[in-house]
Amino acid sequence: MTGPQYFFALTLPAGLQRSLVAWRAEHFPADYGRPLPAAGLMMTLAWLGEISESSVEHLQQQAARIRQPAFTLTLNDAGHWPRSGHIWLGCRSAPSGLLQLAALLRARAARQGCPQPSLPFHPHVRLIHQAFQPVKLPAPGFSWQTRITDFSLMAIPGSGRKRAARCVARFPLLTDTIP
Prior knowledge:
The termini are far apart. Strands 3-1-9-10 form a four-stranded antiparallel sheet, covered by helices on one side. Strands 2-7-6-5 form a four-stranded antiparallel sheet, covered by helices on one side.
């Protein structure tokens, strides 16, 4: 890998990111894996990988044409995928707007030559990576809500020590309807 890796994502408000970091510190011991920094807590909608500048521009144009309503995201589920080593927060019942947005972005990415997973979209925010040992998940009863009014095209640098994702572009969702 030499160039940046791109993906579409939902970024979370800074206040929610801080709340999730505090909750994570309360519920998961430090030896469970490597916690993601607050700014890295986001929901990937479609992975694009390393793509050409013309593909980035084309996908930006396609994303700008999306006319999806804003929606409320509720994070009220937690899980652990031992094979990938991820501990995550997700939605017990994902809003239809989220599922539609992810499906649109994945379809457009696939048409642009970006392979998409064959598994169904599982909306989640990664909290910890490199968690390969069994973990104890918190009891149900936690919940955070946030209004999602846009989505972002993100890029992770291809080389160097700093690998934090940066926002390349933001795309608004329609806010005149409230589903």
